[in-house]
Amino acid sequence: MRALKVPAALLLLLIAIDSLDANRRKQKDKIVQTTVNICEIGNRDSKVYCYCENSQEINEAIKTECWVFNGGIDKADPLWSSFTSQMNLETLAFNVRSDGGLSFVPNKILRYLRKLKNFSIKFSSINKIESYTFVNISSVQEMTLTKNQITTLNKHAFYNLSNLTILTLDANKIKKIETETFYDLPALQKLFLTSNNVTIIEDGAFRHLVNLLELELDKNNISTLNKECFDGLANLKRLDLRKNKIAVLNSFTFIELWNLQELLLDYNEIYILAQRTFDGLSQLRKLSLSHNKLINLADGLFEGVRGLSALDLRNNKLKRFTIENLRPIYDNLKLQKSYIYLEGNDFDCDCHLAWMHKLRHEAKSIKVRTSLENFLCKFSHSSNTQFTYYEKIDSKSNINGDKLSDDADNIEEFHDENEESFIDEPKKVRGDNDRTLLQIPVELLPCPTEVKSVTDRTYTYPSQNEAKDYRNLIITSSISPIGINISVLLLSLLLLLG
Ligand SMILES: *[C@@H]1O[C@H](CO)[C@@H](O)[C@H](O)[C@H]1NC(C)=O
Ligand SMILES: *[C@@H]1O[C@H](CO)[C@@H](O)[C@H](O)[C@H]1NC(C)=O
Ligand SMILES: *[C@@H]1O[C@H](CO)[C@@H](O)[C@H](O)[C@H]1NC(C)=O
Ligand SMILES: *[C@@H]1O[C@H](CO)[C@@H](O)[C@H](O)[C@H]1NC(C)=O
Ligand SMILES: *[C@@H]1O[C@H](CO)[C@@H](O)[C@H](O)[C@H]1NC(C)=O
Ligand SMILES: *[C@@H]1O[C@H](CO)[C@@H](O)[C@H](O)[C@H]1NC(C)=O
Protein backbone atom coordinates (compact mmCIF):
# COMPACT_ATOMS: atom_id res chain seq x y z
CA MET A 1 0.00 0.00 0.00
CA ARG A 2 2.89 2.29 0.78
CA ALA A 3 3.98 1.79 -2.85
CA LEU A 4 1.15 4.02 -3.94
CA LYS A 5 2.96 6.98 -2.49
CA VAL A 6 6.15 6.44 -4.49
CA PRO A 7 6.51 7.66 -8.07
CA ALA A 8 5.63 5.25 -10.85
CA ALA A 9 9.23 4.88 -12.11
CA LEU A 10 10.44 3.76 -8.77
CA LEU A 11 7.55 1.35 -8.51
CA LEU A 12 8.54 -0.23 -11.79
CA LEU A 13 12.12 -0.52 -10.59
CA LEU A 14 10.99 -2.27 -7.43
CA ILE A 15 8.96 -4.75 -9.42
CA ALA A 16 11.96 -5.44 -11.63
CA ILE A 17 14.23 -6.07 -8.65
CA ASP A 18 11.65 -8.35 -7.15
CA SER A 19 11.43 -10.55 -10.21
CA LEU A 20 15.22 -10.66 -10.46
CA ASP A 21 15.33 -11.87 -6.88
CA ALA A 22 12.78 -14.55 -7.58
CA ASN A 23 14.87 -15.66 -10.52
CA ARG A 24 17.95 -15.94 -8.38
CA ARG A 25 16.06 -17.93 -5.77
CA LYS A 26 14.84 -20.30 -8.45
CA GLN A 27 18.38 -20.79 -9.67
CA LYS A 28 19.65 -21.53 -6.20
CA ASP A 29 16.89 -24.08 -5.72
CA LYS A 30 18.01 -25.73 -8.90
CA ILE A 31 21.61 -26.03 -7.66
CA VAL A 32 20.59 -27.61 -4.36
CA GLN A 33 17.85 -29.50 -6.12
CA THR A 34 15.56 -31.19 -3.63
CA THR A 35 17.91 -30.78 -0.67
CA VAL A 36 16.68 -28.76 2.26
CA ASN A 37 18.99 -26.26 3.86
CA ILE A 38 19.30 -27.61 7.40
CA CYS A 39 19.53 -24.07 8.69
CA GLU A 40 16.08 -23.27 7.30
CA ILE A 41 13.94 -26.27 8.05
CA GLY A 42 10.38 -24.89 7.91
CA ASN A 43 8.40 -28.11 7.90
CA ARG A 44 6.27 -28.37 11.04
CA ASP A 45 6.60 -32.16 11.06
CA SER A 46 10.35 -32.19 10.76
CA LYS A 47 12.10 -34.42 13.23
CA VAL A 48 15.11 -32.18 13.35
CA TYR A 49 15.49 -28.43 13.68
CA CYS A 50 18.85 -26.73 13.51
CA TYR A 51 19.86 -23.34 14.75
CA CYS A 52 22.74 -21.96 12.72
CA GLU A 53 25.15 -19.24 13.68
CA ASN A 54 27.09 -16.83 11.46
CA SER A 55 24.93 -17.28 8.39
CA GLN A 56 22.04 -19.44 7.23
CA GLU A 57 22.97 -19.35 3.56
CA ILE A 58 23.90 -22.57 1.78
CA ASN A 59 27.38 -23.66 2.83
CA GLU A 60 27.87 -20.49 4.89
CA ALA A 61 27.04 -21.71 8.40
CA ILE A 62 30.02 -22.42 10.64
CA LYS A 63 28.21 -23.61 13.70
CA THR A 64 24.90 -25.37 14.18
CA GLU A 65 22.99 -26.97 16.97
CA CYS A 66 20.28 -29.45 16.03
CA TRP A 67 17.38 -30.64 18.16
CA VAL A 68 15.82 -34.00 17.50
CA PHE A 69 12.05 -34.09 18.20
CA ASN A 70 8.90 -35.84 17.03
CA GLY A 71 9.71 -39.45 17.74
CA GLY A 72 13.26 -39.28 16.48
CA ILE A 73 15.09 -40.02 13.31
CA ASP A 74 16.38 -43.28 11.86
CA LYS A 75 19.29 -44.08 9.58
CA ALA A 76 17.20 -44.12 6.41
CA ASP A 77 15.61 -40.72 6.90
CA PRO A 78 16.09 -38.49 3.80
CA LEU A 79 16.74 -35.57 6.09
CA TRP A 80 20.30 -36.78 6.71
CA SER A 81 21.32 -35.94 3.17
CA SER A 82 20.29 -32.33 3.85
CA PHE A 83 23.43 -31.89 5.88
CA THR A 84 25.27 -31.56 2.59
CA SER A 85 23.69 -28.10 2.43
CA GLN A 86 26.22 -26.94 5.01
CA MET A 87 29.56 -28.40 4.06
CA ASN A 88 31.61 -25.83 5.95
CA LEU A 89 30.35 -26.56 9.41
CA GLU A 90 33.04 -26.51 12.06
CA THR A 91 30.77 -27.18 15.01
CA LEU A 92 27.83 -29.55 14.98
CA ALA A 93 25.84 -30.49 18.07
CA PHE A 94 22.85 -32.80 18.42
CA ASN A 95 20.52 -32.41 21.35
CA VAL A 96 18.02 -35.23 21.47
CA ARG A 97 14.70 -34.20 22.98
CA SER A 98 12.72 -37.31 22.26
CA ASP A 99 13.09 -40.66 24.01
CA GLY A 100 15.05 -43.00 21.79
CA GLY A 101 15.21 -40.21 19.21
CA LEU A 102 18.66 -41.04 18.00
CA SER A 103 20.17 -44.45 18.47
CA PHE A 104 23.30 -44.30 16.33
CA VAL A 105 26.18 -41.97 15.49
CA PRO A 106 25.29 -40.30 12.16
CA ASN A 107 28.78 -40.91 10.84
CA LYS A 108 27.83 -40.88 7.16
CA ILE A 109 26.94 -37.21 7.24
CA LEU A 110 30.01 -36.41 9.29
CA ARG A 111 32.21 -37.64 6.45
CA TYR A 112 30.90 -34.85 4.23
CA LEU A 113 31.85 -32.19 6.73
CA ARG A 114 35.50 -31.86 5.95
CA LYS A 115 35.98 -28.86 8.24
CA LEU A 116 34.26 -30.29 11.27
CA LYS A 117 36.27 -29.57 14.40
CA ASN A 118 33.80 -29.91 17.21
CA PHE A 119 31.12 -32.57 17.36
CA SER A 120 28.67 -33.37 20.11
CA ILE A 121 25.67 -35.60 20.85
CA LYS A 122 23.69 -35.34 24.07
CA PHE A 123 20.68 -37.23 25.48
CA SER A 124 20.61 -39.80 22.69
CA SER A 125 19.86 -43.48 23.19
CA ILE A 126 23.11 -44.59 21.58
CA ASN A 127 24.25 -47.58 23.61
CA LYS A 128 27.32 -48.72 21.77
CA ILE A 129 30.14 -47.13 19.84
CA GLU A 130 30.97 -49.60 17.09
CA SER A 131 34.45 -50.24 15.79
CA TYR A 132 35.65 -47.73 13.20
CA THR A 133 32.68 -45.40 13.73
CA PHE A 134 34.76 -42.31 13.15
CA VAL A 135 36.92 -43.38 10.22
CA ASN A 136 37.55 -40.50 7.81
CA ILE A 137 36.30 -37.90 10.26
CA SER A 138 39.85 -36.98 11.03
CA SER A 139 39.36 -33.22 11.17
CA VAL A 140 37.50 -33.42 14.51
CA GLN A 141 39.44 -31.98 17.42
CA GLU A 142 36.88 -32.08 20.18
CA MET A 143 34.16 -34.65 20.66
CA THR A 144 31.52 -34.64 23.37
CA LEU A 145 29.24 -37.64 23.89
CA THR A 146 27.83 -36.71 27.29
CA LYS A 147 24.58 -38.02 28.81
CA ASN A 148 23.86 -40.74 26.32
CA GLN A 149 23.19 -44.40 27.11
CA ILE A 150 26.54 -45.78 26.05
CA THR A 151 27.39 -49.02 27.83
CA THR A 152 29.93 -50.43 25.42
CA LEU A 153 32.90 -49.06 23.57
CA ASN A 154 34.05 -51.56 20.99
CA LYS A 155 37.65 -52.11 20.03
CA HIS A 156 38.97 -49.39 17.73
CA ALA A 157 35.81 -47.35 18.39
CA PHE A 158 37.70 -44.10 18.02
CA TYR A 159 40.05 -45.24 15.31
CA ASN A 160 41.38 -42.64 12.81
CA LEU A 161 40.53 -39.51 14.81
CA SER A 162 44.05 -38.32 14.31
CA ASN A 163 43.37 -34.71 15.37
CA LEU A 164 41.17 -35.42 18.37
CA THR A 165 42.49 -33.63 21.49
CA ILE A 166 39.51 -33.78 23.86
CA LEU A 167 37.12 -36.70 24.22
CA THR A 168 34.28 -36.39 26.71
CA LEU A 169 32.18 -39.44 27.53
CA ASP A 170 30.74 -38.23 30.85
CA ALA A 171 27.45 -39.47 32.27
CA ASN A 172 27.03 -42.64 30.25
CA LYS A 173 26.94 -46.26 31.47
CA ILE A 174 30.25 -47.49 30.19
CA LYS A 175 31.18 -50.65 32.10
CA LYS A 176 34.58 -51.65 30.88
CA ILE A 177 37.61 -50.04 29.31
CA GLU A 178 39.11 -52.49 26.88
CA THR A 179 42.67 -52.56 25.71
CA GLU A 180 42.13 -51.59 22.09
CA THR A 181 39.29 -49.09 22.50
CA PHE A 182 41.38 -45.96 22.67
CA TYR A 183 43.52 -46.81 19.72
CA ASP A 184 45.14 -44.51 17.16
CA LEU A 185 44.44 -41.26 19.01
CA PRO A 186 47.86 -39.66 18.78
CA ALA A 187 46.66 -36.14 19.59
CA LEU A 188 44.41 -36.96 22.54
CA GLN A 189 45.22 -34.82 25.59
CA LYS A 190 42.08 -35.08 27.68
CA LEU A 191 39.87 -38.07 28.24
CA PHE A 192 36.83 -37.61 30.46
CA LEU A 193 34.89 -40.61 31.71
CA THR A 194 33.24 -39.09 34.78
CA SER A 195 29.96 -40.63 36.01
CA ASN A 196 29.98 -43.92 34.20
CA ASN A 197 29.79 -47.46 35.50
CA VAL A 198 33.39 -48.45 34.83
CA THR A 199 34.18 -51.54 36.87
CA ILE A 200 36.97 -53.07 34.87
CA ILE A 201 39.99 -51.41 33.34
CA GLU A 202 41.86 -53.96 31.29
CA ASP A 203 45.63 -54.03 31.46
CA GLY A 204 47.02 -51.59 28.94
CA ALA A 205 43.62 -49.96 28.39
CA PHE A 206 45.28 -46.59 27.85
CA ARG A 207 48.51 -47.89 26.40
CA HIS A 208 48.15 -46.03 23.10
CA LEU A 209 47.44 -42.64 24.65
CA VAL A 210 51.01 -41.54 24.86
CA ASN A 211 50.13 -37.84 24.78
CA LEU A 212 47.31 -37.91 27.28
CA LEU A 213 47.63 -35.21 29.96
CA GLU A 214 44.38 -35.59 31.87
CA LEU A 215 42.30 -38.65 32.69
CA GLU A 216 39.06 -38.38 34.65
CA LEU A 217 37.56 -41.59 35.95
CA ASP A 218 35.74 -40.14 38.93
CA LYS A 219 32.24 -41.29 39.94
CA ASN A 220 32.60 -44.78 38.57
CA ASN A 221 32.49 -48.24 40.07
CA ILE A 222 36.19 -49.14 40.08
CA SER A 223 37.25 -51.41 42.91
CA THR A 224 40.59 -52.72 41.70
CA LEU A 225 43.46 -51.16 39.84
CA ASN A 226 45.96 -53.54 38.33
CA LYS A 227 49.57 -52.62 38.00
CA GLU A 228 49.33 -52.56 34.21
CA CYS A 229 46.12 -50.60 33.85
CA PHE A 230 47.88 -47.25 33.48
CA ASP A 231 50.63 -48.54 31.20
CA GLY A 232 51.74 -46.13 28.55
CA LEU A 233 50.44 -42.94 30.15
CA ALA A 234 53.92 -41.53 30.34
CA ASN A 235 52.79 -37.94 29.94
CA LEU A 236 49.75 -37.95 32.17
CA LYS A 237 49.70 -35.02 34.59
CA ARG A 238 46.36 -35.39 36.33
CA LEU A 239 44.47 -38.54 37.30
CA ASP A 240 41.08 -38.27 38.94
CA LEU A 241 39.78 -41.44 40.63
CA ARG A 242 37.49 -39.82 43.19
CA LYS A 243 34.21 -41.45 44.19
CA ASN A 244 34.97 -45.01 43.22
CA LYS A 245 35.04 -48.18 45.31
CA ILE A 246 38.76 -48.73 45.64
CA ALA A 247 39.58 -50.46 48.92
CA VAL A 248 43.16 -51.65 48.50
CA LEU A 249 46.03 -50.13 46.57
CA ASN A 250 48.98 -52.37 45.83
CA SER A 251 52.62 -51.50 45.42
CA PHE A 252 53.62 -50.01 42.06
CA THR A 253 50.04 -49.33 40.90
CA PHE A 254 51.09 -45.97 39.46
CA ILE A 255 54.64 -46.90 38.52
CA GLU A 256 54.21 -45.96 34.84
CA LEU A 257 52.94 -42.46 35.58
CA TRP A 258 56.26 -40.82 35.95
CA ASN A 259 55.00 -37.38 34.91
CA LEU A 260 51.91 -37.37 37.09
CA GLN A 261 51.53 -34.20 39.16
CA GLU A 262 48.09 -34.65 40.66
CA LEU A 263 46.49 -37.84 41.97
CA LEU A 264 42.98 -37.64 43.39
CA LEU A 265 41.68 -40.63 45.33
CA ASP A 266 39.14 -38.98 47.61
CA TYR A 267 35.82 -40.65 48.48
CA ASN A 268 36.89 -44.24 47.98
CA GLU A 269 37.00 -47.03 50.54
CA ILE A 270 40.75 -47.29 50.81
CA TYR A 271 41.92 -48.95 53.99
CA ILE A 272 45.16 -50.49 52.76
CA LEU A 273 47.95 -48.65 51.03
CA ALA A 274 50.93 -50.86 50.38
CA GLN A 275 54.22 -49.28 51.37
CA ARG A 276 55.26 -48.80 47.74
CA THR A 277 51.89 -47.79 46.31
CA PHE A 278 53.14 -44.42 45.16
CA ASP A 279 56.56 -45.50 43.96
CA GLY A 280 57.45 -44.09 40.57
CA LEU A 281 55.45 -40.90 41.00
CA SER A 282 58.53 -38.76 41.09
CA GLN A 283 56.76 -35.65 39.79
CA LEU A 284 53.71 -35.91 42.02
CA ARG A 285 52.95 -32.66 43.82
CA LYS A 286 49.39 -33.16 44.95
CA LEU A 287 47.93 -36.29 46.52
CA SER A 288 44.49 -36.36 48.00
CA LEU A 289 43.08 -39.28 49.91
CA SER A 290 40.34 -37.62 51.94
CA HIS A 291 37.17 -39.52 52.88
CA ASN A 292 38.67 -42.98 52.86
CA LYS A 293 39.10 -45.56 55.61
CA LEU A 294 42.80 -45.37 56.32
CA ILE A 295 43.90 -46.34 59.80
CA ASN A 296 47.65 -46.66 59.41
CA LEU A 297 50.21 -45.47 56.90
CA ALA A 298 53.31 -47.53 56.22
CA ASP A 299 56.44 -45.69 57.38
CA GLY A 300 58.05 -45.25 53.99
CA LEU A 301 54.81 -44.56 52.12
CA PHE A 302 56.01 -41.24 50.74
CA GLU A 303 59.58 -42.31 49.95
CA GLY A 304 58.65 -42.62 46.28
CA VAL A 305 56.95 -39.22 46.06
CA ARG A 306 59.58 -36.86 47.27
CA GLY A 307 58.15 -33.90 45.36
CA LEU A 308 54.85 -34.01 47.22
CA SER A 309 53.85 -30.64 48.64
CA ALA A 310 50.07 -30.89 48.87
CA LEU A 311 48.64 -33.73 50.90
CA ASP A 312 45.04 -34.20 51.95
CA LEU A 313 44.23 -37.01 54.39
CA ARG A 314 41.11 -35.53 55.94
CA ASN A 315 38.25 -37.69 57.14
CA ASN A 316 39.94 -41.02 57.45
CA LYS A 317 40.42 -43.06 60.61
CA LEU A 318 44.09 -42.39 61.04
CA LYS A 319 45.62 -42.92 64.44
CA ARG A 320 49.17 -42.04 63.50
CA PHE A 321 50.98 -39.76 61.14
CA THR A 322 54.55 -40.30 62.19
CA ILE A 323 57.77 -38.48 61.58
CA GLU A 324 58.76 -41.47 59.45
CA ASN A 325 55.76 -40.83 57.22
CA LEU A 326 56.60 -37.18 57.02
CA ARG A 327 60.35 -37.20 56.58
CA PRO A 328 60.57 -37.62 52.76
CA ILE A 329 58.32 -34.62 52.18
CA TYR A 330 59.05 -32.50 55.24
CA ASP A 331 61.10 -29.89 53.39
CA ASN A 332 58.43 -29.46 50.70
CA LEU A 333 55.83 -28.74 53.33
CA LYS A 334 57.85 -25.75 54.46
CA LEU A 335 57.40 -24.11 51.06
CA GLN A 336 55.06 -21.21 50.34
CA LYS A 337 52.26 -22.98 48.46
CA SER A 338 52.19 -26.32 50.19
CA TYR A 339 49.51 -27.79 52.42
CA ILE A 340 48.84 -30.77 54.62
CA TYR A 341 45.32 -31.51 55.88
CA LEU A 342 44.81 -34.09 58.59
CA GLU A 343 41.51 -33.07 60.17
CA GLY A 344 38.71 -35.51 60.83
CA ASN A 345 40.87 -38.45 61.91
CA ASP A 346 41.35 -40.35 65.17
CA PHE A 347 44.59 -38.89 66.42
CA ASP A 348 45.41 -38.95 70.12
CA CYS A 349 47.25 -35.96 71.53
CA ASP A 350 50.58 -37.62 72.07
CA CYS A 351 54.24 -37.13 71.40
CA HIS A 352 54.19 -38.77 67.97
CA LEU A 353 52.67 -35.51 66.69
CA ALA A 354 55.45 -33.40 68.18
CA TRP A 355 56.63 -32.62 64.64
CA MET A 356 53.65 -30.32 64.24
CA HIS A 357 55.26 -27.77 66.55
CA LYS A 358 58.43 -27.77 64.53
CA LEU A 359 56.68 -27.61 61.16
CA ARG A 360 54.37 -24.84 62.37
CA HIS A 361 57.44 -22.86 63.20
CA GLU A 362 59.32 -23.57 59.97
CA ALA A 363 56.50 -23.44 57.42
CA LYS A 364 56.22 -20.47 55.08
CA SER A 365 52.84 -21.64 53.84
CA ILE A 366 49.86 -20.00 55.50
CA LYS A 367 47.82 -23.10 54.69
CA VAL A 368 50.22 -25.39 56.49
CA ARG A 369 50.39 -23.09 59.50
CA THR A 370 46.64 -22.57 59.70
CA SER A 371 45.93 -26.24 59.31
CA LEU A 372 48.36 -27.08 62.11
CA GLU A 373 47.10 -24.28 64.35
CA ASN A 374 43.56 -25.60 64.04
CA PHE A 375 44.52 -29.24 64.33
CA LEU A 376 42.54 -31.05 67.01
CA CYS A 377 43.44 -34.34 68.64
CA LYS A 378 41.86 -36.42 71.35
CA PHE A 379 43.19 -35.99 74.81
CA SER A 380 42.70 -39.00 77.06
CA HIS A 381 42.29 -38.25 80.76
CA SER A 382 44.97 -40.60 82.00
CA SER A 383 47.67 -37.98 81.96
CA ASN A 384 50.07 -36.39 84.39
CA THR A 385 49.47 -33.45 86.68
CA GLN A 386 51.44 -30.95 84.63
CA PHE A 387 48.95 -31.49 81.93
CA THR A 388 46.08 -30.64 84.21
CA TYR A 389 47.39 -27.10 84.52
CA TYR A 390 47.48 -26.82 80.83
CA GLU A 391 43.99 -28.16 80.44
CA LYS A 392 42.67 -25.34 82.58
CA ILE A 393 44.27 -22.76 80.37
CA ASP A 394 42.92 -24.39 77.31
CA SER A 395 39.38 -24.31 78.54
CA LYS A 396 39.66 -20.68 79.64
CA SER A 397 41.23 -19.49 76.44
CA ASN A 398 39.25 -21.05 73.68
CA ILE A 399 39.30 -17.65 72.01
CA ASN A 400 42.78 -18.52 70.95
CA GLY A 401 41.81 -21.22 68.49
CA ASP A 402 38.96 -19.16 67.07
CA LYS A 403 41.12 -16.13 66.63
CA LEU A 404 43.68 -18.05 64.63
CA SER A 405 41.11 -19.49 62.28
CA ASP A 406 39.57 -16.05 61.73
CA ASP A 407 42.92 -14.70 60.71
CA ALA A 408 43.35 -17.55 58.28
CA ASP A 409 40.02 -16.89 56.61
CA ASN A 410 41.05 -13.34 55.87
CA ILE A 411 43.98 -14.42 53.80
CA GLU A 412 42.71 -14.83 50.26
CA GLU A 413 45.85 -14.65 48.21
CA PHE A 414 46.85 -18.21 49.06
CA HIS A 415 43.69 -19.79 47.82
CA ASP A 416 44.62 -22.61 45.52
CA GLU A 417 42.23 -22.83 42.58
CA ASN A 418 42.89 -26.51 42.15
CA GLU A 419 41.74 -27.25 45.58
CA GLU A 420 38.13 -28.13 46.07
CA SER A 421 35.78 -28.29 48.97
CA PHE A 422 37.97 -27.31 51.88
CA ILE A 423 35.46 -24.61 52.68
CA ASP A 424 32.47 -26.80 51.88
CA GLU A 425 33.32 -29.23 54.63
CA PRO A 426 30.86 -28.94 57.47
CA LYS A 427 32.70 -27.55 60.44
CA LYS A 428 33.39 -30.40 62.77
CA VAL A 429 31.88 -30.00 66.17
CA ARG A 430 34.54 -29.95 68.78
CA GLY A 431 34.17 -32.94 71.05
CA ASP A 432 34.66 -32.85 74.82
CA ASN A 433 38.05 -34.52 74.58
CA ASP A 434 39.31 -32.54 71.63
CA ARG A 435 42.29 -30.28 72.18
CA THR A 436 44.22 -28.00 69.90
CA LEU A 437 47.52 -29.80 69.60
CA LEU A 438 49.66 -26.72 69.18
CA GLN A 439 48.42 -25.34 72.47
CA ILE A 440 49.98 -28.28 74.23
CA PRO A 441 53.70 -27.71 74.72
CA VAL A 442 55.78 -30.52 73.29
CA GLU A 443 57.11 -31.74 76.63
CA LEU A 444 53.60 -31.97 77.99
CA LEU A 445 52.41 -34.30 75.25
CA PRO A 446 51.85 -37.71 76.79
CA CYS A 447 54.31 -40.23 75.48
CA PRO A 448 53.21 -43.80 76.22
CA THR A 449 55.80 -46.44 75.38
CA GLU A 450 54.08 -47.76 72.29
CA VAL A 451 54.07 -44.24 70.88
CA LYS A 452 57.67 -43.47 71.78
CA SER A 453 58.86 -45.94 69.18
CA VAL A 454 57.32 -43.87 66.36
CA THR A 455 58.59 -40.54 67.63
CA ASP A 456 61.73 -38.74 66.76
CA ARG A 457 63.02 -37.71 70.17
CA THR A 458 64.88 -34.74 68.76
CA TYR A 459 61.52 -33.13 68.15
CA THR A 460 60.31 -33.40 71.69
CA TYR A 461 62.48 -30.59 73.02
CA PRO A 462 61.30 -27.14 72.07
CA SER A 463 63.82 -24.69 70.69
CA GLN A 464 64.09 -21.14 72.01
CA ASN A 465 61.87 -19.99 69.19
CA GLU A 466 59.25 -22.56 69.91
CA ALA A 467 59.14 -21.46 73.53
CA LYS A 468 58.61 -17.96 72.22
CA ASP A 469 55.77 -19.22 70.05
CA TYR A 470 53.93 -20.71 73.00
CA ARG A 471 54.43 -17.51 74.92
CA ASN A 472 52.90 -15.50 72.09
CA LEU A 473 50.04 -17.90 71.67
CA ILE A 474 49.27 -17.77 75.33
CA ILE A 475 49.67 -14.03 75.79
CA THR A 476 47.57 -13.04 72.80
CA SER A 477 44.81 -15.37 73.82
CA SER A 478 44.61 -14.59 77.53
CA ILE A 479 41.96 -11.99 77.95
CA SER A 480 40.52 -12.95 81.31
CA PRO A 481 42.72 -12.19 84.31
CA ILE A 482 42.47 -15.86 85.37
CA GLY A 483 43.84 -16.79 81.98
CA ILE A 484 46.82 -14.52 82.44
CA ASN A 485 47.53 -15.90 85.87
CA ILE A 486 47.49 -19.43 84.68
CA SER A 487 49.50 -18.50 81.61
CA VAL A 488 52.16 -16.98 83.77
CA LEU A 489 52.15 -20.15 85.81
CA LEU A 490 52.56 -22.26 82.72
CA LEU A 491 55.17 -19.96 81.29
CA SER A 492 57.26 -20.26 84.43
CA LEU A 493 56.82 -23.98 84.22
CA LEU A 494 57.96 -23.89 80.62
CA LEU A 495 61.00 -21.79 81.33
CA LEU A 496 61.87 -24.04 84.24
CA LEU A 497 61.70 -27.07 82.01
CA GLY A 498 63.44 -25.37 79.11
C1 LIG B 1 32.69 -27.71 21.40
O1 LIG B 1 31.34 -28.09 21.69
C2 LIG B 1 31.05 -28.25 23.06
C3 LIG B 1 29.64 -28.76 23.19
O2 LIG B 1 28.79 -28.20 22.24
C4 LIG B 1 31.28 -26.94 23.78
O3 LIG B 1 31.03 -27.08 25.15
C5 LIG B 1 32.72 -26.48 23.56
O4 LIG B 1 32.94 -25.24 24.15
C6 LIG B 1 33.04 -26.42 22.08
N1 LIG B 1 34.47 -26.16 21.94
C7 LIG B 1 34.95 -25.26 21.12
C8 LIG B 1 36.44 -25.13 21.07
O5 LIG B 1 34.24 -24.54 20.45
C1 LIG C 1 37.86 -43.44 4.02
O1 LIG C 1 38.51 -42.74 3.01
C2 LIG C 1 39.22 -43.59 2.13
C3 LIG C 1 40.01 -42.75 1.16
O2 LIG C 1 39.28 -41.66 0.75
C4 LIG C 1 38.23 -44.52 1.40
O3 LIG C 1 38.91 -45.40 0.54
C5 LIG C 1 37.47 -45.32 2.43
O4 LIG C 1 36.46 -46.10 1.82
C6 LIG C 1 36.83 -44.40 3.45
N1 LIG C 1 36.26 -45.20 4.51
C7 LIG C 1 35.01 -45.03 4.94
C8 LIG C 1 34.57 -45.97 6.00
O5 LIG C 1 34.30 -44.16 4.52
C1 LIG D 1 44.78 -31.82 11.73
O1 LIG D 1 45.24 -30.60 12.28
C2 LIG D 1 46.29 -30.02 11.53
C3 LIG D 1 46.78 -28.83 12.31
O2 LIG D 1 45.71 -28.09 12.83
C4 LIG D 1 45.79 -29.67 10.15
O3 LIG D 1 46.83 -29.11 9.40
C5 LIG D 1 45.28 -30.93 9.47
O4 LIG D 1 44.72 -30.62 8.22
C6 LIG D 1 44.24 -31.62 10.32
N1 LIG D 1 43.89 -32.89 9.74
C7 LIG D 1 42.70 -33.12 9.23
C8 LIG D 1 42.47 -34.48 8.67
O5 LIG D 1 41.82 -32.28 9.23
C1 LIG E 1 42.62 -42.02 8.45
O1 LIG E 1 42.50 -40.65 8.21
C2 LIG E 1 43.35 -40.13 7.21
C3 LIG E 1 43.13 -38.65 7.15
O2 LIG E 1 43.66 -38.08 8.28
C4 LIG E 1 43.09 -40.84 5.88
O3 LIG E 1 43.95 -40.33 4.90
C5 LIG E 1 43.29 -42.31 6.06
O4 LIG E 1 42.94 -43.00 4.87
C6 LIG E 1 42.45 -42.85 7.22
N1 LIG E 1 42.81 -44.21 7.48
C7 LIG E 1 41.98 -45.23 7.30
C8 LIG E 1 42.52 -46.57 7.60
O5 LIG E 1 40.85 -45.08 6.96
C1 LIG F 1 26.69 -51.22 36.22
O1 LIG F 1 27.21 -52.45 35.77
C2 LIG F 1 26.79 -53.58 36.52
C3 LIG F 1 27.43 -54.80 35.94
O2 LIG F 1 28.78 -54.59 35.67
C4 LIG F 1 25.29 -53.71 36.47
O3 LIG F 1 24.87 -54.77 37.30
C5 LIG F 1 24.65 -52.41 36.95
O4 LIG F 1 23.26 -52.46 36.80
C6 LIG F 1 25.18 -51.24 36.16
N1 LIG F 1 24.67 -50.01 36.73
C7 LIG F 1 24.14 -49.04 35.98
C8 LIG F 1 23.67 -47.83 36.70
O5 LIG F 1 24.05 -49.13 34.77
C1 LIG G 1 29.00 -51.72 40.56
O1 LIG G 1 29.40 -53.01 40.16
C2 LIG G 1 28.76 -54.04 40.90
C3 LIG G 1 29.40 -55.36 40.51
O2 LIG G 1 29.83 -55.38 39.21
C4 LIG G 1 27.26 -54.01 40.60
O3 LIG G 1 26.61 -55.01 41.32
C5 LIG G 1 26.72 -52.64 41.01
O4 LIG G 1 25.38 -52.55 40.63
C6 LIG G 1 27.51 -51.53 40.34
N1 LIG G 1 27.11 -50.26 40.91
C7 LIG G 1 26.46 -49.34 40.22
C8 LIG G 1 26.17 -48.06 40.92
O5 LIG G 1 26.11 -49.52 39.08
TrEMBL record:
InterPro entries: Leu-rich_rpt, Leu-rich_rpt_typical-subtyp, LRR_dom_sf. Residues 1-22 form the signal peptide. The chain crosses the membrane at residues 473-497. The keyword Ion transport does not apply. Pfam families: LRR_8. Keywords: Leucine-rich repeat, Membrane, Repeat, Signal, Transmembrane, Transmembrane helix. This is LRRCT domain-containing protein. It comes from Leptidea sinapis. The lineage of its organism: Eukaryota, Metazoa, Ecdysozoa, Arthropoda, Hexapoda.
